[in-house]
Amino acid sequence: MLHIFQYWPLRLITQTSLSSMCLKPVLSRPVAFARIWKSWFSSHFLLGNKNIILMGPPGAGKTIIGRIVGQKLDCPVIDIDDDVLETTWNMSVSEKLKDVGYEEFLEEEGKALLKFSASGSVISLSGSNPMHAAGMQHMKKNGIVVYLDVPTTVIMSRLKSMKVDRILGLSPGNSLKDILQFRKQFYKRWYDIRVFCGEDVAAEVVAEKVLDAVKRYQDSEMETFISTRSGRSGRSMEEDSHKYFSDVVVQGLAPDGGLFVPERGLPKFTAGEWQGLIEATYVERAEVILERCIHPADIPASKLAEIIATAYGENFSCSKIAPVRHLAGNQFLLELFHGPTASFKDFALQLMPHLFTYCIPRSCNYLILVATSGDTGSAVLDGFSRLHDTDKQRIAVMNFFPEDGVSPIQKSQMIGCQKENAWSVGVKSDFDFCQTAIKQIFTNSNFTGFLTVEYGTALAAANSINWARLLPQIVYHASAYLDLVHQGIIPFGSPVDICIPTGNFGNILAAFYAKMMGIPIRKLICASNDNNVLTDFIRTGVYDLRGRKLISTFSPAVDILKSSNLERYLHVIANEDGQLVTQLFNQLENHGHFQLQKELLEKLQQDLVAGWCSEEDCLAAIHSVYSTTGYILDTHTAVAKVVADRLQDRTCPIIISSTAHYSKFAPAILRALRIAEINQNPLSQLHLLSSYSALPPIHWGLLETLKKTGNGDHQVCAADMSVLMYHIETLIQNHFI
Fold first, then answer.
1. N6-(pyridoxal phosphate)lysine: which positions carry it (predicted)?
2. Which of these is catalytic: 72, 209, 243, 345?
3. Which residue range(s) make up the domain with 574?
4. pLDDT tens digits for range 37-92
5. What is the pTM of this model?
6. Is 345 a catalytic residue?
7. CA proximity to 709, closest of 384, 348, 390, 381
8. How many CB atoms neighbour CB 566 within 10 A?
9. Does any domain span residue 359?
10. pLDDT tens-digit readout, 644-693
11. Is 425 helix (H, G, I), strand (E, B) or coil?
């Protein structure tokens, strides 16, 4: 095989490559040719004329991993330090640094990159190469940049063992950790692919990860989506339903009425990868998790990182974004209310508008339709109102909510969040009507076609039926577990239970997905209020709406009888049998009930347990927790607390999702705290609550929104499909025409 290398510079053939060639037995010509052809074909298919460019901090293992990758592909291997810089300068890197100093060294290093060219090679950059913009732009023109992301603590340990006590830029005023953190911004600017290395992992394993990541990068066909009502082959009864992430973000609902899910499931992280995220910030965790779930052909990794940083920036009042707080005993609260509208919906809806904007074609206007039982509405309105002005001109939002089915503060908040591209409409019905109406509008091809032809406007969904709403929620469930490990509450691998107030099944489904991806969750506890259809279903396998009427409660976000995202869960446990899912939900639609087969119910009960909470018990829990801890639960969290108390076995920690800030439900909270006279003005109610100096304090964003609301108004309409369609057309005429 030596003749393959005869035109390669000898210095590009690693010692490992030479020894392996010398040890190989002589092959017969046909066998040798077949192997040579196979080797050439595999590397040519993967690389073509492109280079694989390995980037990362000192100690990331770029050189040795580059050699292994090159050997596996039988292609040239170039180490920038050894094969380019030292050859160009005719001196060692350390001598050059000593000779010219830090600033001049970076410039000289960049100039060397600008003069360098290669193709079909594996290239290992120096740790400081990414700090020279022009040099990196030149390298990226003919390369796929792979960021070897190794936790800072691991890098520092490696450098210490290598007796490296200084790297480029280290000075008396900067620690090694500071320099490593500072450099991350440059790595994040240039990479196409991130290979997260977790705790110490063998170089051979990382090399395989690099190859797998490059294959994924080059093959977007690997990550398609199908409808939950598709056949096992992925073909819908109406059409071929294979879609990409960018398609499902825009479409929301599948044409056959099902919900989009990844055809090959979600990626699974190793224990080492999860452990590598223990020291990470929330934003860093989100980047790593979401990059693995969103193909770079849909949204490039560097752009996704930019979107995540924007979504979870200054608009969250807590720097930890989703902190975990000890409540009592083995119970912990995952606080999901630090976003601008004070509910867990902000985690998806500060992110989704940017994902949506990136994915849509520029040639069309879009109207986002939303049905809300309380929290989603203000979160959607706020999220889409934060887009750039040019984007707001072509993207508008219409929010439908039950006029008499949300709390006064929630209604004031939705009115206050209305902007030039975002409106709210109260419907004289309940949430189930609003949600069903939107689904029917999406599947009404005559109406949607008319809007497209007449006004150049397409409809899209922002409810949790949209896949982009679910993905961000996986992050905070994984992050909560990692926080418990980081706080020393549990070692990694020990299980936890998670209890979630549940209505539309989206939040608890996201926790289930986190479990599928490798987070050690034991049981998911579904907590219902008086609308306990899910509790009955999980206990019996019978989903029965016959004779049920929706009951208005103190926890309106879970006042839901038709749980849309349950369909995605059943699709998983039914082994992606779309025909069965279609049969079940057609039966629910046409006859008001369905029943799971025994084996499916047994599968379900391995994941889920359920309970429900009365109104009296909800208020009693709020009073009891405040009396003993000084902490005020919102009504939904109180529902979960009551159910957790009843169902937990106290053999492991239980994380209770605190899905909203108590400020949003001031009348119920004041009643729970046994205040005799309650002023009906929402702002007065918040001021009264703030006088308690409780934990957590009054939500800043909610208070500001209510101050601005004043005498704000909104439209109200009858529970009639034609009336809703009229409002949609009128909004389009006013905003886009």
1. 345
2. 345
3. 271-339+469-709
4. 444 445 555 667 899 999 999 999 999 999 999 999 999 999 999 999 999 999 99
5. 0.89
6. yes
7. 381
8. 24
9. no
10. 999 999 999 999 999 999 999 999 999 999 987 888 888 888 889 988 88
11. strand
